[in-house]
Amino acid sequence: MSAVVLLKIKRGAPGEAQQEVAYEVPFEPGQSVLDALRWIRAHRDPTLAIRYSCTSANTCKECMVVVDGKTVYACTARLESRDMQVGPLPNKKLIRDLVTEIAPPDERLERPPGGKNSS
Question: Which domains does the chain have, with CATH numbers?
Answer without folding.
Answer: 4-104 (3.10.20.30)
